[in-house]
Amino acid sequence: MNAVDIAPLPFCDGIVYGEGPRWHGGRLWFTDGLAGRVYSADENGLLEVEAEAERASGLGWLADGTLVVSALFAARIYHIDAQGRIAATYDVGELAWSTNDLLIAADGRAYVDLYQATEDGLVGAIGLLEPCGNVRVVASGLAVPNGLGLLPDGSTLVVSETQGSRLLAFPAAPDGSLGPPRVFADLGSERHPDGLCVDAEGAVWVGCYSTGEFLRVLDGGAVTHRVPIEKGWAVAPALGGSDGRTLYLVVDDTTEEDLLRGQSTGWILQARVDVPGAGSP
């Protein structure tokens, strides 16, 4: 199958390092960790600061509307109230050196990336996050888990394994526990998947930061569509808009060294697609 290339259009800019895009409440929400902010944008790209949270990365919402934000380069999870104030901060340093992406499903199940630094580099796990802030490990031994999303049936968690160059699919039980994974898609050694989102047909849109492209990938690995970008890292996609068919694409122009130094320039692109989002993440 030959992938169909889609040319993106501008959406918004003026951010430092964008991450964690989510369509919520008729707006695109995302984090800017290096600026310590959570933003939302309307469909015209007009930005509003929703909250300030140091090193903000992943986003999700509890049933009562509480905004939950995970950190990058810190093992912290924030609860933020409706006024944008941090109501609680949870330290998960006993489990991780850093958290990263975060997924909260409609039924309350919540997952978060957990990273540990070793002599051989980062190793990763997935934690099950309770509304009270407690976390327990439900998958381990991963080559840096990253983007998280549930397939439309709600019983499969898809995870970007960044250093494994693949997407993994975990059977997910109603209580949040995960079974042994299978390979959803092997993307090849040159591609390193980052953030992802799921569409209504069960395909996954994923950013491959190292190759500067966003891919729509089917279960089994076939790539149906591709959005190449001119420069920067292809970090994370989200499906949203009034009909769910606008693909928002977070791009950050940096390097691993500059990112650790806090240097980056970010922006968000957009493209129209045929298949709407499935609401995950």
UniProtKB/TrEMBL annotation:
Substrate binds at N100. It comes from the Bacteria. Keywords: Hydrolase, Metal-binding, Zinc. Its cofactor is Zn(2+). A divalent metal cation binds at E19, N146, D194. Residues 18-249 form the SMP-30/Gluconolactonase/LRE-like region domain. SUPFAM superfamilies: Calcium-dependent phosphotriesterase (SSF63829). It holds the Pfam family SGL. One of its GO terms (molecular function) is metal ion binding. The active site is at D194 (proton donor/acceptor). Binds 1 divalent metal cation per subunit. Belongs to the SMP-30/CGR1 family. This is Gluconolaconase. It comes from Mycobacterium intermedium.
